[in-house]
Write a structure and sequence with these properties.
Helix content: 25-40%
Number of domains: 1
CATH superfamily: Winged helix-like DNA-binding domain superfamily/Winged helix DNA-binding domain
Radius of gyration: 12 Å
Number of strands: 4
Mean pLDDT: 86
Largest sheet: 2 strands, antiparallel
CATH architecture: Orthogonal Bundle
Distance between the termini: 20 Å
Strand content: 5-15%
Low-confidence stretches: 75-82
CATH topology: Arc Repressor Mutant, subunit A
Structural class: alpha+beta
Shape: globular
Order of helices and strands: EEHHHEE
Length: 82
């Protein structure tokens, strides 16, 4: 089990960019919306396939990446060190 159950990375989906599992919603796209000051509600209205918990997990993921923690992705267990 990964620390991030909702975030996965697969080279066959969106070029291997981290996405919300079961969607093609790219994590960086949601982070860009957050950076622009959009509310959770605005994000959810524009990305109806994700949940509030997914957004919270994206924020946690970004914090770990920024702090330099190693992140494990999804069931394929690709390990990426930052």
């Amino acid at each position: 089990m990964s620390k991030y159950d909702s975030i996965m990375r697969d080279p066959e989906i969106c070029g291997g960019a981290p996405v919300i599992k079961g969607t093609r919603v790219i994590v960086m796209d949601i982070l860009d919306w957050i950076k622009e000051g959009k509310t959770f509600q605005e994000i959810l209205e524009n990305f109806p396939t994700i949940s509030r918990e997914d957004i919270r997990e994206i924020i946690s993921y970004a914090q770990d990446i920024k702090s330099g923690e190693t992140v494990i992705y999804g069931s394929k267990e690709h390990q990426v060190s930052t």
